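Protein in question kept underneath.
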Amino acid sequence: MPPDRLTQALIAAWSAVLLLHPDPSNGQKPAPPEEVPYGVAPAPWPEQLGNHRARIRVSNPAGAVRVHVPWRRHDADPEKKATLIYEASTGQQIRNVVRWRVDREAGDFVFEPRATGEYWLYYFTFDPRPQDRDKVVVQGNARYAAPVDTADPAWLKRHRLDPECRSEPIWESLPLADVIELEARSDFDSFYLNYARRRRPCWPLEA
């Protein structure tokens, strides 16, 4: 078959596949945020922490820093699901955290770093009670932990982070931490790899 006809045949076959198997995302094509790379962790972390995380770098010591996480989630009601921040070097959870704004597009957080270095913000955190996993469904067949306020009131007051004091000028005045990567726990958990698998065309086998 001439090259042009072969190309046309492949395009026609691909189009037929797409017609028979519509896009499950209803036209929304998820893509990693352009400004932050997306990858898969070299080794999976404990499952109960969740299946996605943001790797955050704090370059300068401060009592409170802000971070903007452009996660572009596709799940419903992300503001009703917990997020957890851990110091990478020690594995200790950071308790002084404010969920400034959480929606499907991004999450804005303020937290108290113990020192400069890397921090991990986990999301899609599973409910820690496995005996209830099959009894309550929050999304699909999974149950997610709800947010819990763990910040020290004295820390909130010191940095003017009480709900009644929060404002855009206060947010802008805080040092900015960097998101260096968004990670999936494994290939199986990756939104983008799974999407690519769904969208891969079924090329005809060569004779």
Summary: The chain has four helices and eight strands.
